[in-house]
Each structure stands twice: as C-alpha cells, then as structure tokens.
Amino acid sequence: MRNLVILGGGTAGTMIANKLRHRLDRLEWSITVVDRDDQHHYQPGYLFLPFGGYTHEQVVRSRHAFIPDGVDFVVGSVEKVEPEQDVVLLDGGRELPYDQLVIATGTTPRPDQTPGMLGPEWRRSIFDFYTLEGAEALADALAAFDGGRLVVHVTEMPIKCPVAPLEFTFLAEAWLRERGLRDRVELVFVTPLDGAFTKPVASAHLGGMLDERKVHVETDFMVERIDDQRKVLVSYDEREVPFDLLVTVPLNMGADFVAHSGLGDELNYVPVDKQTQLSTRFDNIFAIGDASDIPASKAGSVAHFSVEIFVDNFLEHIAGRAMTGAFDGHANCFVESGDDKALLIDFNYDTEPLPGKYPLPVLGPMDLLKETRTNHLGKLAFRWIYWNVLLPGRPVPLPALMSMAGKNAPTTEPDEQEA
Amino acid sequence: MPTTTIGSNEIHVDDEGFMTQYDEWTEDLGTALAAQIGIEMSDEHWKAIRFLRSDFTEHGETATLRRVTTLGGIPTKQLFTLFPKKPAKKMAYVAGLPKPRGCV
C-alpha cells in the first residue's frame, strides 16, 4: 500500500482528494488529508460580509463533508515535514509516512509582521477582511462609521486574491453612496504597486474606475510601520497616510511548518516547477494552490485550473513516466465594482487581462474587463458552484488552460513607466 | 526587441529600458545605467546589485525587496536610501535584469 498525504483541506487539497480518489486504485493507494480544523470557508464570501451581504452560515461548512469516502481526514497541526525521511510530523507526536506529498496549506494574512498593526487599534480602527472574524468585525465598524478617512491598504505583494482590495474599495464607495455618507468620507487606496493592479491593461482600466469614483490612490507605498497613536501608515521612505478607519491586507505568508521543514522561500512558499508544480528539490513533493511560489495569482481559480492539470500529471509521475501536462498560470476572476455590477478578467503567466467575451467568442455571455450585471450574477452564482460542483471534483465546463478566443489584444502598450 | 546604446555598448532592452539579455551586462554598464537614473554607485549599492545578479541565476526571477532584505541581508530602509522611491525597479534596472513582476 502506498500513501498519498495531502496537507491542507482547502480548495486545492479537497479537489485533489476528490479527483484522485476516483483515479487511484483503493487497494494500492491510501489518501490522507490533514487540516488543523474542520471548517471550510468560502473565502470569496468574506468580501460581502462587511456590507451585510452574506451570513456566517453561507460561507462556512465542515471540511469532512467534502472529503470523499475512502479518504482519511485527520484534524491536526503539522509540526514539520522531514523530506529526507518521507514523513510528516504532527503536533502531539503522530507521524504520517508518505510516498507522495501534496502541500496545499495556502497562504495566511500575518498582521504580526508589520509593527503597530496588531496593537491596541487592531479591530478598533484597523481591520482586515481576509479572515471571517475580521470581515465580521469590519461589518460592525462600518455600520458605526459616519465619516472621515477610510483607507484601503495593501501591505506587500503577493496577496491572496489580488483584486479583492479593489473590489472592497468599489463596494465601499457604492455602499457609502447608498447610505448618503459619500460626501463625508475621503476614500484612499494605498498600494506598494505603481498602479491600481499588476498588469498594464487592467491596471489602467481599474485605475480609471478609481478616478471616476474619486478615490485617491497612493502608489509605491511600502509600509514600514503603523503609528497607532497618531493613526497613520508610515512608509520606508517616510511618507505618511493618516486614517480614521484602516482596512488593511496584511503581509501574506505560507505556513510556518514549510519554513521549519526547510522547504520554503523567504515568504514560506514552496519553490516548484511552474508547469508541473513538483518541488524543485524533492521528486515526491508537490505544492498546489496558494502554497507554491508559482508566479500566478494566489486565487481559487488558479488552484482549480492547476488541479485539473496536476491530476493527470500525478498519475503519470507515479507510473514513472514524464509529466506531459503544463499549467499556464490561468486565472479567472470576477471583480465586483459596486451597484450590482462586476467585471471579469481572464489571464495567465504570459497574457494579461484583456477586453473581450468569455467563455465563448462574441456570444459570451460574460464581458471581459467591462462592468456588467451578468458578471455580478456570475459571481453570486459561483458560491453554489463552489460548494456543489468544484469542491466535490465534478467537471466544471471551463477549459483549464487559458484561450485567446474572444479576447481583443491591445495594439499599443497603454503603460509607460519610469524605471 | 529594441536596442539602445549606453557608452559604447549596444544592449537589448524592453519598452521601459530594462535589459533583456543577462549576459550583455557588465559592472561598467551597471555604473552607466545607474548614472542614467541619477545614482552614483557605492560599495553598498554594489552589494545589493551583486546579490540580485547572483540570485537571478539561481532563482530565474528578479528578487523582490523582501528577498534582498531576507537573503541578501540589506535592510529595506537602506534600500530606499540607496535607490530612492522605487528601489525594486531601480535595482533591477541597474542590475540588467527584467522589471520585477509586481506579482499577479
């Protein structure tokens, strides 16, 4: 009997367990999924919680309900992996030997990494919305907010779901308008990037949407610390951004056990081949989803598309054959823009988000890089798809690799920046 | 791919002036590129640039500020002093490496 151990029962880990249980002989392979708790969160739902959009129950289910029969689900914290011995050590001393290991423990916001963030103002005037508790606490703070400087802030890239801070800003702007508070609020978007987003065409488009909404954008801002007494963000080059209510995206890091095991880079992400996601150092360790260092968005859609490629590759790998699938970094994200509209972006390692139609050329029905109500309904519908189709590993009728069909390539670069 | 001439060297660059051929770079060229953006190279500047050059050969990507700080041992604050305002991009420009991916 050979052992496949999957660390992490989130989007990637759960999908892999479901897909591989169907494909691996039960007499030959055991599959074990380890997670530190039994709560699976629909993380895209966090975005709507601060505005009263979803309830707690709509975004939390038990993990084991999505783990198939024939897979062991172990609740426990990983202390470390010993890659030379092919064994995982859990807190409390339990050992899980493996033949193949998948690290799918994601990435986590770490407010402790920025001085002043996790101080007395945390969840009083400083909030995050990338945790359920943070999003719920922010809902209360927003309900009591009656004006001042609302600052949305990204600490450092990469972050999980890189469009979410923009979505939050658009939703906050619309929400303030609806409540008749917009004139009493100064909205500021603070980013370490040189524009609203990472890719030129989308950055120009989304930056224009911030301008239209009179959101001031502070670029190239690398936060050094938060002065919680004066309520200001302070950058390494000594710029200051004052706030009354700060909604920050803390530094994101991979799991600590990755560092303890000597398997991580400077942010605890596992270096892997970007096409197969096999560790660059160990022939029986893969990292899938946010846990790896691939230069793609840390997002559920990337986890989903990469799992599709990974499963076939994995079967070839354990049969001793070369892996023939190559993941292209495909990401596909709805971007909420307020007033019940959303944009859709579709891109990969080499192709930035472009305007056009998706998934079918001309017919769509989704418009790329354009605000429509259909896209918003698509985003809302996705929660059902996530719980009922995606996690159980059922086929989603979207190609795993990105297609250029329906996309309009730019004729000139919109973006000229200094060095 | 456009080319440009710095001193007596013709080099391949992208639309924003970042060099695209790792092997076309020399330390003299680094000094000239730094001068283009108003930086006079010191030992501290070179420590950062040499880290970026060697890290690129191992890692295949231009190092982020955090990587230069964590693995190269140069505090972020100092990088902002050495390469003011946009240290990640300026270091990549001087080191003849691709513009850092802001990530994605």
What low-confidence regions of chain A span 5 or more consecutive residues with pLDDT below 50? Answer: 413-419
- Strand-pairing-aware structural class of chain B: mainly alpha
> Which CATH C-level class of the largest domain in chain A is it?
Alpha Beta
Would you identify the regions of chain B where 5 or more consecutive residues have pLDDT less than 50?
Answer: none
Rg of Cα set of chain A = 22 Å
User: Largest sheet of chain B, if any?
Assistant: 2 strands, antiparallel
Provide the descriptors you would attach to this structure in a database record:
heterodimer; A: about 425 residues; alpha/beta; FAD/NAD(P)-binding domain; 5-stranded parallel β-sheet; 8 helices; 24 strands; globular; disordered C terminus; B: about 100 residues; mainly alpha; two-stranded antiparallel sheet; about 45% helix
Quick take:
The complex is a heterodimer of chains A (419) and B (104). With 419 residues, chain A is α/β, with parallel strands linked by helices.
Walk me through this protein's architecture.
The complex is a heterodimer of chains A (419) and B (104). Chain A has helices at 11-23, 56-59, 132-144, 164-178, 200-212, 256-260, 300-318, 373-390, and strands at 2-7, 29-35, 39-41, 60-62, 71-75, 78-82, 87-90, 95-97, 100-103, 107-109, 126-127, 148-154, 185-190, 216-218, 223-227, 232-235, 240-242, 245-249, 252-254, 285-287, 331-338, 341-347, 356-360, 364-368. Chain A is globular and about 65 Å long. Chain A has 419 residues and is of the alpha/beta class. In chain A, helix 1 runs parallel beside helix 7. Chain A has 2 domains: 2-108 and 253-318, 3-Layer(bba) Sandwich (FAD/NAD(P)-binding domain); 111-249, FAD/NAD(P)-binding domain. By secondary structure, chain B is mainly alpha-helical. Chain B is 47% helix and 8% strand. Chain B is globular and about 35 Å long. The mean pLDDT of chain B is 92.
